[in-house]
Design goal:
globular, single chain, 2 domains, binds lysine, alpha/beta, Lyase, Ornithine Decarboxylase, Chain A, domain 1, TIM Barrel, nine-stranded mixed sheet, binds pyridoxal-5'-phosphate
């Protein structure tokens, strides 16, 4: 099996990435260890940028969905690449602002933003994606109190069910996100925003789900949104500038996954926008896309040390590692599938089926269920692949496990971008009685 994700074999026969022997990396930084590949992150960003540029010229913007992996270093990479940022909390916004990210390229999402978060967004001048009527009222009050204006988009439920796991589907009617097109809900929200002098309606937004493998749902979402824009133009004389179609572009986690290339998604969206706008006489909107997983997912791996190996005859072989659902909760949450290599034996014949378990006090603490690997030995190391998205960002301190460090690789150099947590970090906010 050829190595994926630009992984290679080092002169010592170990797995290597960006010219770095991963066993050497482990010797320096220990395990568990998140490893991110800067070259791949930048390549992915540039694939999105050049594709969008090809079809929309200057009339489009990629905004990285920072929920996938949000650290100062990642925000700085996005800033250097000239893209925007999707944030969904005061914490993500704070991280972005701490590297002086241009506020007007930040889009603030969330279905229940707090007063303080909205205040911070208004003060800094970031774009706010309005989710509901309560938020609209709160934002209007904040703007009036401060005598400031805010640029807003409205999050619409386009009523599309993308074929993905139920928990990561968001565009259908039964969703906590956004306002529905049905019953005129979205229409009356637009009317209400237009009546507010302190709010400047700049765009509409939708997001249909995550890890989507088909281009058709994106085309459908674009069509539904453009129909609504046309209705607003015809009935309210309101021409909306930005159409933000969200993220959700699928990636390859295992050999079975065959996601379309990034270019294919954008080409499909462009075809739909082009056709609709020329046939129906609508001005082509400024297109925003919000990829998260497809920028960082395949550009991350996690390294673990293999501890106990338990072979239960005729049942299952468990190999436990020194991390678990605390650093990657995605099997526990979505029965997510991953692939892995043994760092010391990357191309060894895969002869035995193992379940890779974590060390949390939880039976569901599994990282990979039933994966064929070479015979494993305690003390060897495992690289779980495509863990760059929604791993570090969804990590926890359950069982009081400190979070692993994050190391960023580029051209043979490794840099710590998030330090390993210590026991002292774990008790820092505890108050003794
Ligand atoms: C509003 C919004 N935009 C963008 C994303 C990024 O999605 P993905 O990481 O699948 O590209 C999400 C998460 O699903 C989201 O909720
Ligand atoms: N966190 C999820 C996806 C949700 C994305 C945010 N709306 C995952 O790991 O796949």
């Amino acid at each position: 099996m050829p190595l994926r994700y630009n992984l290679e074999i080092s002169p010592k026969g170990n797995l290597s990435w960006e010219g770095i022997d991963l066993l050497d990396l482990i010797e320096v930084y220990g395990t568990p260890l998140y490893v991110m590949n800067e070259t791949m992150i930048r390549e992915n960003i540039n694939r999105f940028k050049s594709s969008l540029q090809k079809y929309f010229g200057e009339n489009g913007l990629i905004i990285y969905a920072s929920k996938a992996f949000c650290t100062k270093a990642m925000c700085r990479i996005a800033k250097e690449e000239g893209i925007g940022l999707d944030v969904v909390s005061g914490g993500e916004l704070y991280t972005a602002l701490s590297v002086n990210f241009e506020p007007n390229k930040i889009f603030f999402h969330g279905n229940n933003k707090t007063y303080d978060e909205l205040e911070m967004a208004v003060d800094k001048g970031v774009k706010i994606v309005l989710d509901n009527f309560d938020e609209l009222d709160m934002l209007s009050l904040i703007c009036k109190t401060k005598n400031k204006k805010a640029d807003v988009l409205i999050r619409i439920k386009p009523g599309i069910e993308a074929h993905t796991h139920e928990f990561i589907r968001t565009g259908q009617i039964d969703s906590k996100f956004g306002v529905a097109l049905e019953n005129g809900e979205a229409f009356s929200m637009v009317q209400k925003v237009l009546q507010k002098e302190e709010l400047n309606l700049v765009g509409l937004h939708c997001h249909i789900g995550s890890q989507i493998f088909e281009t058709a749902p994106f085309k459908l979402a674009a069509r539904v949104m453009l129909e609504f824009m046309l209705k607003l133009k015809n009935e309210l004389g309101c021409e909306i500038e930005i159409l933000d179609l969200g993220g959700g572009f699928g990636i390859k986690y295992t050999a079975h996954d065959e996601p379309p290339r990034i270019e294919k998604f954008i080409e499909a969206i462009a075809e739909e926008v082009e056709e609709f706008c020329s046939l129906r006489g609508l001005k082509k909107p400024f297109i925003v896309l919000e990829p998260g997983r497809s920028i960082v997912g395949e550009a991350g791996i996690t390294l673990y040390t293999i501890g106990s190996i338990k072979e239960i005859p005729k049942v299952r072989n468990y190999a436990s590692v020194d991390g678990g659902m605390t650093d990657n909760p995605r099997y526990a949450l979505y029965q997510a599938r991953y692939d892995a290599y043994v760092v010391e034996n990357p191309l060894g014949e895969r002869t035995k089926v193992y379940t890779i378990a974590g060390r949390c006090c939880e039976s569901g603490d599994i990282l990979i269920k039933d994966i064929k690997l070479p015979e494993l030995k305690t003390g060897q190391h495992l690289a779980i692949l495509a863990t760059g998205a929604y791993n570090y960002s969804m990590s926890s301190n359950y069982n009081r496990f400190p979070r692993p460090a994050v190391v960023l690789l580029k051209n043979g150099q490794a840099k710590v971008i998030v330090k390993r947590e210590t026991y002292e970090d774990l008790v820092r906010n505890d108050v003794e009685i």
